[in-house]
Design goal:
Blueprint lengths: L24 H12 L6 E8 L10 H13 L5 E7 L2 E4 L21 H21 L4 E7 L2 H14 L4 E3 L2 H7 L14 H15 L23
Parallel strand pairs: 1-2, 1-4, 4-5
Antiparallel strand pairs: 2-3
Helix pairs in contact: 2-6, 3-4
Length: 228
């Protein structure tokens, strides 16, 4: 049974719903626990996906959508899902733990340049530490992300020289780009992006590609970064 990361009597009184969330002592402590004490499994795949508005993440529409892709191809024992973004780094099997279930702030709504810069620096360093920590745990790594989450992952890959397939493909993003929208590259629930996601897994397995369909009732978009 998982030991509580931060016991109730040790939790900060600072709010978890402001733009200063990334500096919150409990978020910092929980992430340090993941990077220092957490024991990751050994799997064929590590799949990095963004955090979601609905908590715990595994119950969110976006994560159910990711799971239909991932586990439509892989067996449960073949893939380890790791959530990243505003939350820092959260192996999804601990997504019911405080403070990962309790914060309300969404980085996608932050327009403070310093906080965005600090987020990218902090998150890229955390991702780099996680990649190093798990260098021998996974055969393949896939990260499904756009926006600042993608920037942080790209920097982490540069820092560690550990291969991560960062999806969607840049050419797909450019095809779908709409400069007139607030989020130029749109949502990760778009069929073309999901197809890239599926293809990244099937290619690594050396099996035939699967055609991804998007059912309107099953594709509610609640991604943290791209809440539309």
């Amino acid at each position: 049974m998982l030991k509580t990361i931060i016991p109730e009597d040790e939790r900060s009184n600072e709010p978890l719903d402001t733009e200063r969330l990334i500096y919150h002592p409990d978020m910092i402590r929980a992430n340090e626990w993941v990077l220092s004490e957490y024991k990751p499994p050994t799997r064929d795949f590590c799949i990095f996906v963004p955090c979601a508005m609905r908590k715990p993440y595994h119950t969110s529409p976006s994560h159910k959508m990711y799971d239909r892709i991932i586990f439509g191809i892989l067996e449960q024992e073949d893939a380890h899902v790791v959530v990243f973004g505003t939350c820092g780094i959260t192996p999804r099997e601990i997504d019911t733990e405080y403070p990962f279930t309790d914060y309300k702030f969404m980085m996608g709504k932050c327009n403070v340049a310093k906080i965005k810069r600090d987020f990218i620096k902090m998150e890229s360093e955390r991702l780099a530490r996680y990649l190093e920590k798990t260098r021998d745990n996974y055969k393949h790594r896939v990260a499904y992300c756009i926006g600042d989450f993608r920037t942080a992952m790209e920097k982490a890959v540069e820092m560690t020289n550990i291969e991560v397939s960062i999806i969607p493909k840049k050419e797909t993003m450019e095809e779908l780009a709409n400069p007139d929208k607030r989020f130029v590259y749109g949502s990760l629930s778009q069929q073309q992006y999901l197809q890239d996601f599926s293809d990244s897994i099937t290619e690594k397995m050396n099996i035939d590609a699967r055609t991804v369909g998007v059912h309107e009732d099953l594709s509610t978009n609640d991604m943290d970064w791209y809440l539309l």
